[in-house]
What we know:
Elements: E1 14-15, E2 18-19, H1 28-51, H2 54-65, H3 69-77, E3 84-90, E4 93-101, E5 107-116
Antiparallel strand pairs: 1-2, 3-4, 4-5
Helix pairs in contact: 2-3
Pfam families: YuzC
Amino acid sequence: MYPTVPPFSCPxxxxxYGARPYPPVDTQQFSHAVSSFQSLIxxxxxxxxxxxxxxFAHQFMAAAQAGNxxxxxxxxxxxxxxxxxxTSYTPSGVAITLREQAAAGSPCCSLTMHLRxxx
Length: 119
């Protein structure tokens, strides 16, 4: 009445008509994402190098703790990174997300750094 499933198989991978068909492997988009992510790592290094400078770190933290989003954005843009940068912060730290756009305009990859600055 019901089809039998061989032992040690993956029954969720089979439908009533056999194995699920997968599209052919195309690594073009994946290769672009890998290349873009390597670029994001370089941008992240630029951001971290700037934040490692005490004067810049003081300006950044003071603006963030005051809730001055415009100044935080201005400071991060002054670094010269080509990636889109988003920040969110709390009294205990900051999350900095760098995003790279794909050729079609949709995001292909992102890198988020969580940095702690308080308790």
